[in-house]
Design a protein that fits this description.
By secondary structure, the protein is mainly alpha-helical. The protein is built from two helices and no strands. α1 (11-20) packs antiparallel against α2. The chain is flat and about 30 Å long.
Amino acid sequence: MRPPPRTRVPQWLHHQLERGLAVKPDERHPSMRALLAALVFSFKLMHGLA
């Protein structure tokens, strides 16, 4: 799925949310805790905090 043009959702966030909404269970995060950890890590990485 591609984000619509001029979206205000950052690409790193869109990627993690897209993975969380994957149709196939093996393509999703294994748990909400894993999703949250991926979001925090991605945020820190994109903002030079990791």
